[in-house]
Each structure stands twice: as C-alpha cells, then as structure tokens.
Amino acid sequence: VKEKESDALSAALAVLSPTAAEAVAAAAALGGGVQEIRLYRGGTVMLVRRGVTVRTSAVCGESDFDGTFRRLCGNSLYAHGDTIRDGYIYCEDGLRVGVCGRAVTENGRIVRVTDIASLCIRLPVRVPGAADALLPYILRDGAPGGMLIWSPPGVGKTTVLRELAAALSAPEHGLRCAIVDTRQELGWGIDGDGIDILCGYPRAAGMEIAVRTLSPQVVICDEIFTEADADAVLYCAASGVSVIASAHAACRGDLHLRPPLRRVIGAGAFPALVGLSRTADGIVFDISEGGV
Amino acid sequence: VRLLGGGMLIFAALALGFMARRRAADHLHALERALTLVRHAKREIELFGTPCGMLFAHYGETVDEAWMNRLYAELDSDSASIRDFFARLGGGYREDTLRLCDSTIAALEEKRRQAEREYPARSKLCAAMPLLFAVSVIVLIL
Predict the structure, then answer these.
(1) Other Cβ atoms closer than 10 A to A165
(2) Which residues of chain A make contact with B93, given a CB cutoff of 8 A?
(3) A3 contacts: CB under 8 Å, gap ≥ 6
(4) Is the dihedral of CA B59, B62, B68, B74 positive or negative?
(5) Does any CB of chain A come closer than 8 Å to the CB of residue B97?
(6) What number is the ipTM of this complex?
C-alpha cells in the first residue's frame, strides 16, 4: 500500500515543474500526509496536508502551469476532453486532477473548457482498516445492508468507500463487490479477488450493468447526485443488491434537501447513514439509522 | 582509353539516372507511408481516443525517432505538413485534432496526386538527362 502511495506521489512530482516538485517533495518529507496539490496559473503552489491547506514558497508561472497541464494530459488533450468537460483529468497511477477554467457552452451543455486557470491534483490514499468500525453496521442482519456515507468534500468519503470495498471482499467476509468507478478513482489500489471494478462507467448505467451481469452482493459507488443515480440505487435495492454510496452534505439534514437523496433514503435503500468529520486524530464517524 | 572513359561516363550517367528515378519513387512511396501513418493516427483517435504515446503501438512497424527521420528525409520538401501535424498533435480537443488529421490527410493526398502525375515524366527525364549529358560529353571528347 505504502509503495502504491509513494508511486502516486512520485507520479505527481514527475508532472510538476522543478520548483513546485521541490516544494511538494520537501513537504512530503516532513511527515507526509499530502492529500492534494493545488496549482494556480501564476499563483502560489498550495498543498492540503491532513485536511489543512498549506502555502508553499513555490510559484507556478504560466509556462510551468501549461507544462504541468500538458504532462497531466500525457500530451494528448484530445484523450481527456470528455473528463475535462466533467471537471477532471484521470491519470495513470491513480492521480485525479480537478480542472478549472472557462467553460464554452452550447444549449446549456459544456462543450469544452478553455483558459485552464487552476488544477487540484488529488493523491489517492489507502488506509487499511480505516472503515472496519463500519462493517458491523453493514453486516448486522447476516446479509449485507446498504450505507450512505456523507460529508463535505475532502474529508475522506472515497477513502472510506475504498476501504469498505477492500474489507467486504476480503476472504474474512468474502462478499462479491462491484465498484462503479465513474471517475476512475475509487478502485485505485484495490486488486483483490471478488471485486469487479467497472472503470469509467456512468454511475447509473454501471450500477444497472453490475446487477444484471455480475451478480454482486454489494455495489459501491461514489457521489449519488442525480435522479438517474437515485433510480439506479432503487433498482439495485429492489434487486436484492445492497448499495454503499457517498454524497456531499454538511449535516444529515442536508441529505433531505436534495430530492434524489430524499427519495432513496425514504425508500429505505440505505439502512445506515454515516457522517464523516475530520479531527486531529483522524476521521470520526457519526452513524445513524436511515429512514424507511 | 577514350572508349573506356566514354563507357565509364555512360555507366555513371545510367547510375545517376537510376538513382534519381529511385529517389522519385521513394518520394512517392514516402508520401503513401505518411498518409497511412496519419490515417492510422486519425482512426486511433476517433475510435479509441488513444493518447499520443500509444498511437502507433499497433501500427505493424516500429515508429520511432529514426523511422520518422527517415520519412522526413524521403519526403524532403514535402515533409512540412507532417512535421506540423506532429508538432500540433495533442494540443487540441478531439474535434480540433480530427480536423487537424483531415487537413493533413488532404494536404498529403494533394501532394501524392501531384507526385503521381509528375512521376512518369520525371522518371523519363531522370533517365534521359544524365544519359544525354554523358553522350554530349563523349561527342565533345571524341
């Protein structure tokens, strides 16, 4: 695991300009824990370490920024157009890069993003055992149950989902898990038996395909957001397949403000709701019953 | 000695003519190869969104720097469009890149048509000119 994380950091350092790489490497050497590297065209290079934003002394000039963006795209912008329209670039070694620029729209649809102004390079992490405390709430009735994990962005939902997938499919529990990895981030670092990773599939389509063709016991996916996602969750639940998913929310009440989430929680697709918050000691779980 | 000299001149002229014809044929062949290369790149980008580094992984030939340099040398003055293609490849979104492929293919096809039209005449000229020059020199010497 540490080797893979180190590879991801090395991959990030390899795409940065020498000055930015030096600053990030120095920060990583000081106890590690680098979660994000944030670059702004002509601005200061920033890091997020254990949830805290840190400004470095390095500046990312125009040419450095363009060079980094080009390298992140593997010198092939055309190969990343679809994901850039969705706001990110997926790179080998598990890096996921948030992309911010000027959107060109056509009939309300983003057709391309130009004038890229900032990049947020997210480093994937594996924290084996981080989700073990949640396992009893998933396995409490003898069969796996659903769970919705909520928190604001950047707290660790994806990491917890990843660890749940690894734990549930481990020989100890031996569940057949399907990960719908729309943004090619969730399945990073997992290569166990019993896990089907649907890489790059749209969320709703991936969930339906998994249920129809892979006979999973648990479907795991990130960021339930749209009505189509909610339909797919209900389809899984109605097919006897538990869904473990995440959603953005600041508090439990926020979940009910969004109709798709209100619908799936109300239908009982998620018997357990888990809020995440980050403290100095790590991630804290706030576990509650889902509504029916 | 004069006869021997004359024979050597004619032999050299024939060899020169053969080489010039060969170069014209190579040029035509190089245009074909450049066209095949760009069409392959377009297909990979259009169907699979293959990144630049992997575009020619399944090409059948190893397309490396030496291969490209040979192609540029054989294309000679016609290498500008394909050099420009590779310089700009990867810098645009899919639609722009496919348009770049199309315009490069169109430019190379035009050059190939022109080369095909000129090839028979050029081929005869390449054979005749050195020979005529050699015969003229021989007549002057003898």
Answers:
(1) 26
(2) 77-78, 81, 112
(3) none
(4) negative
(5) yes
(6) 0.76
